[in-house]
Amino acid sequence: MLTIGLMEHFVVVDYIIVGAGTAGCVLADRLSANGRNQVLLVEAGRKPRNPFIKIPAGFAKLFKGGNAWNYESAPQCGALKRQIYVPRGKMLGGSANINAMIHQWGHPDDFAAWTESGATGWGWDSVSSIFAKMEEKLECAPNSHAHPASSDFVDAARSVIGHSGDSYNGGAYEGAWIAHTNIRNGKRYSVYDSHLKPAMKRRNLVTLTGMTVSNLITENGSAVGVMMDGPQGRTAARAKAGVVLTAGAIETPTLLMRSGIGSGASLQALGIETYRDSPHVGQHLQDHPMMPMVFQTTHSDTYKSAESLTNLLRYILKKSGPLASNAAEAIAFARSSPKLTAPDIELIFAPFEWREQALQPPAIHGFSIGAAIVAPHSRGSVSLTTRHGQVPPKIDFGFFTDKDGQDRKAMLAAVLLARKIAQQPSLSPHISREHLPGTDVKDYDALFTEICRNLQTVYHPAGTCRIGSSGDGVVSPRLKVHGLDRLWIADASVMPQLVRGHPNAAVAMIASRAAEFIAKGA
User: Annotated binding site for FAD, which residues?
Assistant: First the structure.
């Protein structure tokens, strides 16, 4: 662990925020709002200048590029040894600038589970008012650019699942909807736009881009600063009031472990001096596994031609057409068993072929239904393989490793539900055949093999620095890191259980609450 006494030159501020994703943008806004706090926001990426960031349907164009941390998972699904692409945003705005812009609060049962696991004060009654308040700044409305087939999917899904109400936000939900999205005037409107850009006009907020935080700096049991690497070499910054980690479920535990905070035995094996033995750092990784099913259409009215000259002109001149859509246009939630009290599976409808984790363009005219588990029982981990910061961490989702096999059963149920919905009268006229995995794949073992062969995630990693007691988690319910003063975590890593659905709004809520805790000195 580095000490500030070794530094001769450093920037001094009140708060340092590490990571400018959803949580970092919200916190930078909130902590600098009083005009008195000197706040430093450090981001490894740059400003979001790529034109595909603003184009709602352009997010997949950002995969494997310079605006993303292009991780690959450890091999998943047993003998198939499938590595899964893990894109995380690397720019101001972070993953909020490469996601599908779906705005969702989560289910009340999610937060009940948080409180049952030790996250006191995080129940539905405590968080729902914050979600409602956030919508004064966030743009969130049903996608007005959705393909007509997305409405047909909604009708088909409701005829099978039923329907709980007009919105999936604000309470319990089960059914199907056109997705609420963060789109304004045909362009992405992320927390970078709603929170960080206005805040960057304040003189008391400094944003450093292209700077990677390599280590935390501590003194006498307190976090007092960070070491950063950038184009000009290594530099340091000191925080008089504290450091807040908002680097996400992959980078936040990685930074802690590089700084000597983690499993003592694992750190010592890598030659890293243990500052605090915290065995839950990097553990309990969760994500939503998804099997993208593809149905070939009877017509060519799909988004395979989204980049045609006609559609490009529609977008440039009118901000309309396929490029103005978020691609993942409709969502449905259902229970794999009537014994469950809340949905555990989600279906995501897109009016085009989702091909090879969206790393390849559509090859056929088709529709996709992503069959996903939204209440997974399996847990994985993020771990270091070396002490050197340039080497990416090992990301093991542990998919389908739960001892009772509940995730396998839920995924099979999701795939069968998608097939049933595709056969409904409102949707079936669009479909000529099931392209992937194919109707000839019927046996459960064969079907599960195809699931594993095509498995990906919905890009929602969480849980690696979860809220809990000092013996059961990494942070307290007030988001302070156990065993260190003046160090907080406020991103998806603190979730004891990943929310059922799309967590961007939940991450913003966590950051908003963190700002309140920090302001009160909690």
Answer: 213
Does any domain span residue 323?
yes
Query: What gap in Å lies between CA 381 and CA 394, rounded to an integer?
Result: 8
377 is an active site residue: no
CA distances from 18 to 31, 255, 272, 387 (A): 13, 10, 21, 20
One pLDDT digit (tens) per residue for the chain, 522 residues: 333 333 445 789 999 999 999 999 999 999 999 999 999 999 999 999 999 999 999 999 999 999 999 999 999 987 688 899 999 999 999 999 999 999 999 999 999 999 999 999 999 999 999 999 999 998 899 999 999 999 999 999 999 999 999 999 999 999 999 999 999 999 999 999 999 999 999 999 999 999 999 999 999 999 999 999 999 899 999 999 999 999 999 999 999 999 999 999 999 999 999 999 999 999 999 999 999 999 999 999 999 999 999 999 999 999 999 999 999 999 999 999 999 999 999 999 999 999 999 999 999 999 999 999 999 999 999 999 999 888 999 999 999 999 999 999 999 999 999 999 999 999 999 999 999 999 999 999 999 999 999 999 999 999 999 999 999 999 999 999 999 999 999 999 999 999 999 999 999 999 999 999 999 875
Contact 498, 376 (CB under 8 A): yes
Same domain, 331 and 295: yes
Q: Same domain, yes or no, for 40 and 132?
A: yes
| Spatial contact of 354 and 372, defined as CB atoms under 8 Å apart | no
Q: How many helices (H) and strands (E) does the chain have?
A: 13, 25
Catalytic annotation, pick one of 107, 280, 460, 482: 460
For residue 387, tell me if it sits in a domain: no
Predicted TM-score (pTM) of this structure: 0.97
20 and 130 assigned to the same domain: yes
Is 9 catalytic? The answer is no
Q: At what angle do helices 108-116 and 124-134 cross, to 10 degrees?
A: 130
- Asked if residue 233 and residue 161 are part of one domain, the reply reads no
Q: For residue 120, what are the domain limits?
A: 9-61+92-97+104-143+188-281+461-521
Rg (CA), the chain: 22
Catalytic pick from 145, 284, 365, 502?
Answer: 502
